[in-house]
Amino acid sequence: MENTDELIQRMRKVEHGFKEIEKEADNIVEENSVEHCLTISKAFFSSEAYQVRSLATFILGGISSKSTEAFSLMKKNVSQDKSWQVQEILAKAFDRYCSDVGYKRALPVIEEWLKDGNPNVRRAVTEGLRIWTNREYFKDNPEIAIRLLSHLKDDESEYVRKSVGNALRDISKKHKDLIESEVKTWNTADKKIRQTYKLASKFLV
User: Fold this and answer.
1) Among the three residues 46, 62, 86, which one is the final residue of a domain in this structure?
2) Per-residue DSSP letters for the chain?
């Protein structure tokens, strides 16, 4: 790995997208032990620059299937970050964890995060696994993805409801009948549910 100060300065210059940051994180994970990656990510997450904290988050995602501490830091610390960019990376980091352990095996954790009191934690799941039915396990079990997402149709957070509605809309492209059957049961007199319904049913007409 290049000099830490040089790396930080290079990451701070990244203004658009995240591919360069993700690539750097993958290199760090590949070249270092899990323990050293954890140390690096903790140091980077203390940075004032969201790009460097994003790098830390990608690293945590890369080792989260092998380190319970890394996974815990994602949920407890990264989810508290005020940067929307970091929250986008948290979603990707959570998906990385699920992919590495297997989506079926990750189901209990997925359900746990979907019930968390922090909307950033819930959205990390709803957004991170998009497109849900392109993911292993959910590809063959779309009804489970729909059930998990639909539980949040009236979520208190508009931020989460928007992600849920968009995720269900994605699924409707391949599983129109399943989404139609689900949303027909919704009470759209509820303002929160109605907002999710409008997004989820976009392609049902």
Assistant:
1) 86
2) ---HHHHHHHHHT--S-SHHHHHHHHHHHHHS-HHHHHHHHHHHHT-SSHHHHHHHHHHHHHHTTT-HHHHHHHHHTGGG---HHHHHHHHHHHHHHHHHH-TTTTHHHHHHHHT-S-HHHHHHHHHHT-SGGGSTTTTT-HHHHHHHHHTTTT-S-HHHHHHHHHHHHHHHTT-HHHHHHHHTTS-TTSHHHHHHHHHHTTT--
